[in-house]
Structure formats: structure tokens, C-alpha cells
Amino acid sequence: MSGGKMVPAQRVRCAIYTRKSSDEGLEQAFNSLDAQREACAAYILSQASEGWSALPEVYDDGGLSGGTLARPALQRLLGEVAAGRVDIIVVYKVDRLTRSLFDFAKLVETFDKSGTSFVSVTQSFNTITSMGRLTLNMLLSFAQFEREVTAERIRDKIAASKARGMWMGGTPPLGYAPDGRTLAPVEEHAALVRHIVERYLALGNVTVLKRELDEQGITLPLRERSNGNGRIGGGQFARGQLYKILSNPIYTGRIAHGAKTHQGLHPAIVDLDRWELVQARLAGNRQGTRTRVRAASPSLFAGKLVDPAGEPLIATHANKGATRYRYYVSRGLLDGAASEGSRIPALELERAVCERVAEAFDDPIALAATIGAELTPASLGALVATAAAVAGRLRQRDRLLVQPLVQRITLMPHRIEVECSSDTVAEALGVTLAPDVTPAITVAAEVTLTRTGKALRLVQDNGAAIGGGETNAAAVRLLIKARRWWRTLRIGELTITELAATEKVSPAYLTRVLRLAFLSPEATEAVIKGRLRASVDVGSLTLAGPLPACWREQALRLMPARSVDRYAAREGRETRDVSAC
């Protein structure tokens, strides 16, 4: 009261958020979202004396799980919170906001930064007190438990249904069309599957089979997607697609679930005897001499690399003496159908991809959030340790880990985009995914394909070679020679011309090499340990004009940007070097 008049309460801006996990009933005139919003609006009205007022914006997420924060209305609401335009978020129940303890912790942190709080209409607690926080955590724990139990029931139902021979959805294999909970043969496509099986048995090699199909103009038939969203197929068969057709037990009338197979309700389109002959031939080829020879230097990403247009890059190699050089080459270049394309050194690419994925595992909390993993505070310690071990295996390019983890790699002009399976990431981290999460995540590496000397290299945006580079033995020999020649000249018994004659080189060449004796300690170490810029080679060290006397300028010319920054910061040398220059 002031002067006998009541001072109006400060306006408190309230946003109502509603959510429903399924879309069942949302088509009704008054649905669950409307009921939640009406209850929240009534609660806000009851607090009008405190200055509460409902914002007009509608934040409804219908048919979306509470196990992920990737919900359109929630993201819009979080944007308003970050902008400081919301004071209180009102929900019908806490699990409408989220069902994950991990996600809830992130939301609370976001709310605290913006000074925003939230209220549950049907659950009374105060998060200011320790008892209130305990109550809230208990509610969220039960909500998360309920979701996990639901997910387990769904997995058990799928396993039980497949054990009874039912088709559980997805893209039907070539040769079949969906027919309720089973599959019906499409005779035209089934005949093509049988033709592929017979020709493989006759030829005995998938590469030769693919070449024959291409020469005969046999392509993948166009088919409608099961969800009616466009068409699939068209174009030539890939070797991976042929392997999948040849090894899929569904064509024998069986359903696969994990490592088990069950008798299906659908009819077979390939005789079991013929299919078993195919499996024996495939197994024999895998155990053959050629496989053992190639295993010494396998191509990690064969069949997974494409250019920006979606055209595949094929794993190939060239031999020079006893050395084998591996590449990923555009299919058009390899077939002679195109004059332009990409030819990427395989080892450079594999280093770049494995290093970038390893960096994602270096931040396991962010990675777990990205894939939609379910975490508890007690599991964080084990998560960090597991992720560190996985990152180490990735940097060693562990084939058994890398190949199932990386699904697809797109080579862009200045970037590599790596698509990883969410399931495999979760398995590697030892965590459980929430239902309805994104099946794959994408990480990007900023690298550029460039020519250094006679070689093509993938170079990071700071100028460093992928994987830290390798020691250039020729550069090290030049460095040793420069130090030896300088020691001789310092004695004063020989002139440059006389020393050049003794060493059987020209005075100009001796002078150019002699510069290397005056490299800074950091630049010298970079030469010895292979930490020079990827563009620096023997030619650039001896032919690119005089090297600067200033050590910092030497670093700028010869070393990657990251190394220059470390050099400048170390012991305050930046100030001293600038003054010395």
C-alpha cells in the first residue's frame, strides 16, 4: 500500500508448453494438448494477483517423445527464454517438459542463465529447497523408468513378432512388396533376384557379376517407398547392394533378427539349396588368397565415400616397386567415363575421418546429448573413461570399430562430412538411446585437398597435414648438412666457394642450404618431428628465397597456425621476438 492505494504487481510473463507423445486423437476438436493448455491457463489466471499473465504464443508439440529436446515448439520456447522474453514456463506435468534426467539438467542450466523458472500445475514442489529438488528428481526418475520400460516392451514385441515370422516394416527387400504383416513377391523383381543368384554361382565373383549387369544394362528397378514418400531404386547396382541381396536369408522365406533367423510367413523366391551354395561361395572368397593379401592395408571406407553429387568414390591402389599406394577415386575417372573427378590418398582421408570422429568422443557429454542417450549422474564417470578408450582406438584406425561406426562420408570442396550410426555410437559409449532418436549424426572436418610437391594431400584449415604429418627425411638431411657446413665455415679455413668445390655443389646451392643452420629451435624441432606446414618441402626450404631472420616470421612461414600460436604464447616469447625483428 502507498498513500492508501495498492501498488500493482510487476508483470510476470508466462509461457504455456504442452506435449503429447503420440498423435492419436490430435485430430479431434478438443484434444489432450487443448486440455493441458486450458489447465495451465486457469492456473496462471489464479496467480493474476501476483502479476502473472499468459503470453499469446502457442508452444505445442504433438506426437513427439519426451526423450529428446529436438522438438520444434520447445526449441522456439528456448529461443524466447534465451532472449529474456519469458519469466515462467507453465506445464501440466514435469514429464511434459522432458522425461530425461540428463535433458532436465541441461534445461535447468539454460533457465538459470536467463532467470527463468518453471511451474507444474499438477505437482507441487519448490526447487529452491533440497527437498524440492529431491522430489523433482524422483518424479523424473520414474518418468525415465517408464520410458525405458516402454522401449524394452517395444523391442521385446519386435523380437516376438519376428519369431512368429512377421515382417516388422521398413524398406522391403528387392523382390517383395509389403502385405500387412508379411511380404508378397513381386514376380518381375523376384525374377531379377533369381537371375543375380544364378549368375553369381556361374561367375563366382561379385565384381565380375556387377560388370556383366552393367554391360547388359540391368539396373535397380524403381519402387515406391513404403511410406509413400517418393521412390527408390534406379541406376546401376553397387557391389554392396549385390552382396546384401546374395546374403539376405529373407529370400529363402526366413526372417532375420540379430544373429537368429526364423521361418517367415512370406513365400521364398530362392531355393534354400541354391542360397546355401551362394553362402559357401561367398565365405570361400572371403577366406581366399586375395583377401589375405589385401588385409595388410585394407581400405576402411570402401563403398562409403561419395562426392557432393552423391557419386561414389571407389577404393583402388597402385604399386610402385614393393610399395602399395591406396586411393579413393571417382567412379567416372576409374571407368574412363569422365575426365574430371577426385583422386584422394586413402591414408590421408582415413586419418582425417578417424581423427574427427575421435574428437567427437573427446567430449562424451556433448556426444551423448547429440545422439539422445539416456544418462544418470552415476554413469558419467564410466562414460568419460569409455569414451577416452574409444577415441584412442579411433586414432589407431581400429577397423572393427571404425567400419560399423561410419556409415557414409561426403567429400566437399573444403570439408568432409562424416555420418555415424547413433546405435553404434551408443554401443561404443555403453549407453542406451531414448526411443525415436535420430538414426545417425553428422560431424564435419574442415580440410582441403591440395598438391604439395608431387603428392596430393588433405590439409587442415590451419595448414597442418592430417595426422600431424610425417618426418621428411630429405629435409632432416638438409638440416644436418647445413649445420655441418656452417661449423666448417666458422673455423675460417675455407671460403664458401672453396667449400662448395670440396662438397661438389655450386656456391649458390650451398648458400641456400646454409640458411637452415639459422632456423629457430622451434622451427628446427618442427623439421625433425614432421610438424611443418603440409605445403613445406625440400624445394620450398631451399628455393623459396631467403628465410627471415625473425624467429616468429620463420614460424609463420614454416609451421601450422596452431603451432605458431603455441610458440608465441610460450614463455612470453612473442614480445621478445617482435622486438628482435
Structural class assignment: alpha/beta
Dominant shape:
flat
| Helix fraction bin | 40-55%
- Continuous helix count: 24
- Parts with pLDDT < 50 across at least 5 consecutive residues: 288-296, 573-580
Q: Mean of residue pLDDT?
A: 78
Terminal residue distance: 73 Å
Radius of gyration (Å) = 32 Å
| Secondary structure tally: strands | 22
Q: How large a portion of the residues is in β-strands, by DSSP E?
A: 15-25%
Biggest sheet character: 5 strands, parallel
Which descriptors apply to this entry?
single chain; alpha/beta; four-stranded mixed sheet; 24 helices; 22 strands; flat
What does it look like?
This protein has 581 residues and is α/β, with parallel strands linked by helices. It contains 24 helices and 22 strands. Strands 1, 2, 3, 4 and 5 form a five-stranded parallel beta sheet that branches. Strands 12-17-18-20 form a four-stranded mixed beta sheet. The chain has a three-stranded antiparallel beta sheet with strand order 13-14-15. The N and C termini lie far apart (73 Å). The model is unreliable at 288-296 and 573-580 (pLDDT under 50).
